[in-house]
Amino acid sequence: RFKQYNDSFGHPAGDEALRLVAQVLRANVRTGDLVARYGGEEFSAILPNAIPGEAMVVAERIREACAAQEFPHRDVTLSIGIAHNSHGSPGAMVESADRALYAAKHRGRNQVAAEATVLLDHFIVVNREDQEFNLLPEGWTLEETKSLGIDRLSEIAEGAIPEAAKPLIRALTAMLDLRDRDTERHSDRVTRFAMRLAKQAVVRKTAIFTQNDFCDLHLGALLHDIGKAGVPDAILQKPEALSSEEWAIMRQHPVRGAELLADMPPLSSAVPIVRSHHERWDGMGYPRGLSGTSIPIEGRIAAVADVFDALCSERPYKPAWPMQSAYAEIVRCSGTHFDPACVAAFQLKWSEISALVTVAINKAA
Ligand SMILES: [Fe+2]
Ligand SMILES: [Fe+2]
Q1: What kind and span of H or E run contains 330?
Q2: What residue spans define the domains of the chain?
Q3: Whose atoms come closest to the Cα of 273: which ligand?
Q4: Among 223, 68, 228, 240, which residue's Cα sits nearest to residue 161?
Q5: Backbone phi and psi for residue 43, each to the nearest 5 degrees, phi listed first
């Protein structure tokens, strides 16, 4: 039916309706839940650590809120399918939610349905017409992701970068290192931290990452600061605090970087991280002031990794912080600067992350 909405009122009206639905979803999930657009008129919501039955309550709340929401042209209702994580892999969960969704539609739309009624700790909201839609890209099951060591995971992510693009990536990162000696190896460490955080988030089921997502995260973290190539030395190397004009130029680097990579197909999958690594959970970041789960999960992960490494490193304007102080700062900023789920992953991975920092300090000495 959504196709009819577009056909009757035009695509801009359809887009506006989707935005309103997304707002309803975000307003009615719990702190720490993830909401994402799956494609077309489909959305998914993930409720980590929900108690039994809670997903049903949240789904009903969303259904009611959407039915009560005013839309400019015609009422919009949601059909919602629920699945729980005993289905195993993310793919099996989505399939189960999908079958429940069809049952909900069959019963007359504007309904919530679940295949099973126990332990409803995850759910997927979908409102779709197209049966052919490919639900999840190729990926690993949760068990496979858990069993893959971080080195193997990184090796696979690295291996996914086309051979022809590798010299280009090396040249781009080397160029940045030349410009900014103080951030040398920064991108490399941010990548290592980010991959660990992502794996931990998947294992704790606070994020669903497909194989492709891991590859994009690896590439995005490597290139996250590439837009700094457009920031003049006088600003990049300035030992004093930046003036407001200088700050304005510095704050353009996520957009500059995204523009640079957007037209390079092998590297364009890095764009979400490049663009969003300075957004903040509380909406006070830049360039777009996005907040909460409207920031791509890769960007939220990269933000923790990036700030932690920056704190531990010497910069023209500040000495390197002791590792424990940097750790305390990341934890302090959970829920303000950072996604609490990503900070939880950071704390759980602390022994591995601190070991990497120690190695880096010893190498530099
Ligand atoms: Fe940056
Ligand atoms: Fe950075």
Answers
A1: helix 323-332
A2: 2-124, 142-364
A3: 1
A4: 223
A5: -125, 155
Question: How many angstroms separate the alpha carbon of residue 192 from the centre of ligand 1?
Answer: 16
The pLDDT value given to residue 218: 94
Ligand 1 centre distance from Cα of residue 360 (Å): 20
CATH number of 142-364: 1.10.3210.10
Does residue 354 come out as left (phi exceeding 0), alpha (psi in the -120 to 50 range) or beta?
alpha
* 84 CA distance to ligand 1 middle (Å): 37
Protein residues placing their CB within 5 Å of the ion ligand 2: 225, 306
CATH topology of domain 2-124: Alpha-Beta Plaits (3.30.70)
- The ligand that comes nearest to the alpha carbon of residue 286 is 1
The CA 223 to ligand 2 mean position distance, Å, reads 9
CA 188 to chain centre: 19
Report the distance separating Cα 8 and Cα 65, nearest Å: 24
Strand-pair partners of 42: 39
Distance 71 CA to ligand 1 centre (A): 38
How far is ligand 1, taken at its centre, from the CA of residue 254, in Å? 7
- As a whole number of angstroms, the distance between CA 25 and CA 243 comes to 40
| Cα 347 to Cα 31, 200, 344, distances in angstroms | 19, 10, 5
Contact indicator for 275, 226 with CB cutoff of 8 Å? no
Spacing, Cα 212 to ligand 1 middle (Å): 23
- The arrangement of strands across the sheet holding 123-124 comes to 34-39, 42-46, 123-124, 80-82, 112-114
Q: Note the ligand closest to the C-alpha atom of 190.
A: 2
CA 100 – CA 84 distance, rounded (Å): 11
The two tokens of residue 41 are 């008129």
DSSP helix/strand/coil, 321: coil
SS3 state at 110: coil
User: For 140-155, how does the pLDDT look when each residue is reduced to its tens digit (9 = 90+)?
Assistant: 666 677 777 888 888 8
Q: Please report which ligand is nearest the Cα atom of 276.
A: 1
In the reported structure, the alpha carbon of residue 222 is separated from the centroid of ligand 1 by a whole-number distance in angstroms of 11
pLDDT at 173 over 90: no
Question: Per residue in 323-348, pLDDT tens?
Answer: 999 999 999 999 899 988 899 889 98
